[in-house]
C-alpha cells in the first residue's frame, strides 16, 4: 500500500486533537459526584444559551450555544447544601439552593428582566444611572382625586417614545438651560446611562405619597439606580388648594432609593425635579418646601454672609445674594438665601434657566462622571 | 523531519493549552452591594436588616445631603466617605398659580414620622463598619457592624473571591488551580501519547481494527450460510464470530472471553436445535442479556411463540433480504444501548429503576409480540374475537393479542410518567 507523504503528519495531528478533547471528558465520565444543571427560559421553556453559572459563588461556565444548549454538567460536587447563581443578558439573576446528592439534577427557570438600556452603545462604566418607570396613575387637581391612566402600561412604544423625548429635551439639553459662562464638561451627554423599566403587570404609582412608589421587584432588579424617575403622561386641572397632590416631587429613601416623579408634558417641571434628584439643588421659591445649604457649590445658603463669601470666592457679584421670599398677597420669607437670578428653574417651572450657582453645582456633579472639568 | 513536526506540534499544543485556559471562560461578574435597612425616628436610627447580595453599586460620589456616611475596615481605617440626605422629607411642586397670583411654584412638603431608609453601599473587601455622622462629621449618629451580612453571604457563596480569605480550603483559586492542573494533565497525556505514537502507528499498520466493533455471533449448522452471513455482516462494519451448531455456540459463550453483542440463531440444527440453545443462553447469568435474533427457514409455531416469545428479540424468516437483516440487527442493538443510556437519565429524572425496567421490558415485549403475532397469523389465520376453543394455535394467538393489548395499556401509562419526567428535566424522551 502506498501512503501519501503527509499521512503521518495528519495521523499525529488527529491523535493529538483527540487526546485534547477526550481527556477531560474521560476524566469527567469517571466522576460520580456530578450535577446536571438545565437552564431554561421561564416562559417558553426553551434552553437558554449563554447563561453564566456560579456554584457557591465560584464561576463554573457558560451554557453552550450549540446542541445541548442550556445544560451544564458539574463534577466533584461535595455532599451538602449548595447555591447556584445564574445570570443571563436580559434575564433576572436566579439564585437556587439545593441539596446534593439527593438533588443531582437542578432545573433553573430564568425569568426575563424588565430593564432595558436606552444607550445605543450600552451603558458606560462611570455614567449616572437614570431609570424611568411608567405610572399607571395620574391626578386631577380640579376633582381632587387620583385616577388610573393606562396610557403607558398599555403601550410600551408610547412610553419609550415619551422617555426618549424627555431625555433629549432635558438631560441632553443641559447646555442650553444652564449658564454658559460657567460651562459644562465636554461631552457631558455621555455622563448618563438611561434605562427604562417596563412591566405592565407591576407599574409604579406616581400618586402614592408625594414621590410615588415602585413595585418591590423593581428594587430587586435595579440595584444601581442613581435616580428612579416615575413618569406619567399629564397632570389634570389647576391647583386650587393644598389637598391636591403635587405634580412633581423628589424623595430620598437613602442612597440607592431616590425617587422623583414628573409628567412627561411639563419639561421644565421635569428639569426642576431633576435639579433636586440628580444635582442636589434646593428650591429657591418661598413655600412649604425643604431648605438647607447644599454643599459643595450650594444654590441656597443659611446666611447672607456665607452666600456672599461664596460669591466672592467664585468671582461673582455678592450683591446677587438675597433672602428667599415672595412678595405677594401671601407674604412669605425664609431664613435662607439664594443667588441665581429669576427666572430661575429652581424657583419657576414655567420658564427660566439654571443660574450661575446652580450651574456650578451641576458642573461639579457631571465632572465626577466624565473624568474631570474641561 | 518527523521530530521537527513533533516539536512543532508540542509547541502548538502548549500554546493551545495556555490560550484555552485563558480565554475559554468569560470574565465572571462578582460585583456586590450591601443593603442596610434602617428605621429613622426622632433623629435616631435603628437597624432593621442588612444583607449582602450580587448587584451593581450606584455612584455615592454624586450624592449630597446633611449626613455623612463612612465605611471603615477592621482597623477602623476609612475606606469610603460620602454625603446623603436624611430620610423623611419629600419636596413636591405644584405648577399652577393660585387665583391668578404670580406664584410660580407651590411647595408641598411631606414628612414621615418614622421613615424607612435603605442605604446601598458597594461591597468592599474587608469592610467592617458603617458609620453615619452629621454633615460636619463631628457627631456620630449611628454605627453598624457589617460582619453579620458578610458572614451570611459567605455561608451561601463560599467560593466567591471576596470570601476566599475566610475559607482557604475552597474557592475560585482552587478552581483555577484545578483547571491549570487539568490542562497540565492534558499536556502530560499528550506527551505520553507522542511517546507511544510510533507503536500505535505500527499497530495500525498490522491491525486495522483497533476500534472495537460490535460483535455478532452467527449460529447455523450450514457452513455456507454461516460464511454468507459473516461476509454480509463484515461488509456492514460488524465483527462476526461463528458457530456451526448449538453446542459450539455454548462453548464460545462459556469461555466468556469474547461475548458477542448479539446472536443470530438458527432453529433447525442437529443435535441441539435453536430453541434448546436459546434456553441455555437465557439461563446463563453472563449471557441472558445478550439479544438473540432467531434466523430460520422454519415457520414459527404457536406453541414455540408462546414458550419462547419472552426470550427472543426478533424472528427473521429465511431467505432474508440483507437490508432487512441489517435493520433488524441495528434495531436490536440500538434498543439495548438506549436502555443502558436512558436508565442513567431516568434515575436522574426521579424514575425508580423498577419502573424504568418495567417500561423497557414491556416496550420490547410489545414490539416482539406484534412481530410474532403477525408471523403466526400468516400461518394460522386470524382468531375470531371472543370465540375460544377454535384450536390451540388460534387460542394462543388470541391470548398473545390480549396480553399485548394489556401490555400496551400499561406501557402507555408508564410512557406518560416517564416522558413527563424526562421532558421536565429537558432530557430527550427515550425511544426504542
Give the overall form of chain B: elongated
Number of domains of chain A: 3
CATH topology value of the largest domain in chain B: Rossmann fold
Contiguous low-pLDDT stretches of chain B (5 residues minimum) are: 17-25, 98-103, 167-180, 202-211
Describe the structure using short key phrases:
heterodimer; A: 374 residues; alpha+beta; Immunoglobulin-like; 3 domains; six-stranded mixed sheet; elongated; disordered N terminus; B: 432 residues; alpha/beta; Rossmann fold; four-stranded antiparallel sheet; 45% helix
How do the helices and strands line up, and which of them pair or pack?
The complex is a heterodimer of chains A (374) and B (432).
Chain A: H1 7-29, E1 35-41, E2 52-55, E3 58-62, E4 71-74, E5 80-87, E6 94-100, E7 105-110, E8 115-117, E9 128-134, E10 137-140, E11 145-148, H2 156-169, H3 174-177, E12 192-197, H4 216-221, E13 227-232, E14 248-252, E15 258-263, H5 267-277, E16 300-301, H6 304-313, E17 322-326, E18 332-338, H7 356-370
Parallel strand pairs in A: 1-7, 9-12, 9-13, 13-15
Antiparallel strand pairs in A: 1-4, 2-3, 2-5, 5-6, 8-12, 10-11, 14-15, 16-18, 17-18
Chain B: H1 2-23, E1 32-41, E2 44-54, E3 67-73, E4 78-84, E5 90-94, E6 106-110, E7 116-122, E8 127-134, E9 140-145, H2 147-156, H3 172-206, E10 215-219, H4 223-235, E11 239-243, H5 246-255, E12 262-265, H6 274-283, E13 292-296, H7 302-308, E14 314-317, H8 322-348, H9 353-380, H10 392-425
Parallel strand pairs in B: 10-11, 10-12, 12-13, 13-14
Antiparallel strand pairs in B: 1-2, 1-7, 3-4, 3-8, 5-6, 8-9
